[in-house]
Amino acid sequence: MAARGCGGVWRRALQRGPGGSCSASRPRRAVACNARGGAVPVGQSGLAPWVPVVGLEIHAQITSNSKLFSGSQVQFAAPPNSLVSFFDASLPGTLPVLNRRCVEAAVMTGLALNCTINKKSLFDRKHYFYADLPAGYQITQQRVPIAVNGSLSYSLCIDNKMSQMVTKTVRIKQIQLEQDSGKSLHDDARSQTLVDLNRAGVGLMEVVMEPDMCCGEEAAAAVRELQLILQTLGSSQAIMAEGQLRVDANVSVHHPGEPYGVRTEVKNINSIRFLTKAVDYEIQRQIKELENGGTVVNETRAFDSKLGCTVPMRDKEGKQDYRFMPEPNLPPLILYDAKSLPANVNHQQVVNIDWIHERLPDLPSVKRAKLVELYGILPEHSFTLVNEDGLMEFFEDVVKRTQMKPKKVIGWILSDLLSHLKQHSLTANESPISSFLLADLLNLLENGDISSSAAKQVMAIKEGNKKVINKLIGLVRKATRGRANPLLVKQILEKKLSE
């Protein structure tokens, strides 16, 4: 997802209409958060602008074969309750055994986000009741998490112009290890709820971002950059559609110079597009509520993607007591670096921070810089290549196999190929045109064997547009001065294009 600027975001405010529906109306006073930062008044002049504040809590499922504290397998869409150990079901007498892979993934993520890794961290019990939490508590890290005080840089476009990009930074408060809960399946027809514990105990990293953002576009750009980093590291597949990356957004508004307003929490947002819409809607809802003389209630809300608005879930006015307590069955988690590593220690029994740091791969920001330096492409093009799944590898494969300069190759990929992929919701890995075919086509074009128009028509046919083949037949008949048999030409072209 290419990041877009926030300019002009607040030109319309959404409000909840009768019966919970969402309708559009213009508030007396609204704000636009632009990529340069700050609050910009939109609407009635002379009135103080509103300053939106957005912080995020992101739960990323750790890529691991087994769960955080048990040996149960982790597998998406497995039959209900088929991957549940005695510990996951919280049977008496069962004890947690910490998964080393999950610890290493959290350390790796913390290092990539410029965090300080705590050599000693602690596990805690967070008590609350849900039907899909059989123990009645979640094991997390409330007192001393595994990583603290980091930062994440991400980029935005100014006024939706890819050529005008600005880099912003959000502070990372902490990263903590914790176990996931199960899943409740509601059967409305029978008025009953079923529980699937396959997900119970799966390892999560909770990444807590400080309230340094001001609109949905900023939040979306930050989450997309985090998603790319996690996927690059291999610490999480971060597939939002499979629940591997879930976002809670904390939103409030206030006037400049005043304390932060009362915040609401929009829970479990499962797509970057919905995150943008949920945050922007919630900001406008709060502005409208305050300007109409009302108050913002400290509550948990959900985003209804069909209605395009947030809806109340439960209030948080009364402080919820989670009764945190130290986890009695897990000792402190001790990590080492090269200096503190004891002599004659079994390296398979400890986690070495320096060893992990030395093996960090190139992060997305480094990949973009290398693309610009190596191929001479524009910085905004490097963002598109890295941000689109598999597109950078596709581009580099084509460049290796063609005589065409990279600056011209990027035009064909972004203008002709990517537009088709987006139109059909495909990734570069699912492209109907392989990098081999595109490279061959560009070589023919570069050598003057075919025209640019013919190349585009071949691409269109390979993308599934069979009507374009008639244009190619016309070109062949023109080149042969009408002597070629059109039926025979069509047969030959169809055979060649299907290879």
Structural account:
The chain has twelve helices and 20 strands. With 499 residues, the protein is of the alpha+beta class. The longest helix is centred in the middle third of the chain and has 20 residues, at 272-291. It is globular, with a radius of gyration of 27 Å. The protein starts with 12 loop residues before the first strand and ends with a helix.
List the defining traits of the structure above:
12 helices, 20 strands, globular, alpha+beta, single chain, 9-stranded mixed beta sheet, disordered N terminus, 3-stranded antiparallel beta sheet, 499 residues
Helix content: 25-40%
Q: Beta fraction of the residues?
A: 15-25%
On the 0-100 scale, what is the average pLDDT? 88
Distance between the first and last residues' Cα: 32 Å
Please specify the SSE layout and strand pairing.
Layout: E1 13-16, E2 22-25, E3 29-33, E4 39-43, E5 51-61, H1 100-112, E6 116-117, E7 120-121, E8 124-127, E9 137-140, E10 147-158, E11 161-179, E12 183-187, E13 192-196, E14 203-209, H2 216-233, E15 245-254, E16 264-269, H3 272-291, E17 299-304, E18 309-315, E19 325-326, E20 333-334, H4 353-358, H5 364-375, H6 379-387, H7 391-401, H8 406-423, H9 435-446, H10 452-462, H11 469-479, H12 486-497
Parallel strand pairs: 16-17
Antiparallel strand pairs: 1-2, 3-4, 5-14, 5-15, 6-10, 7-20, 8-9, 8-19, 10-11, 11-14, 12-13, 15-16, 17-18
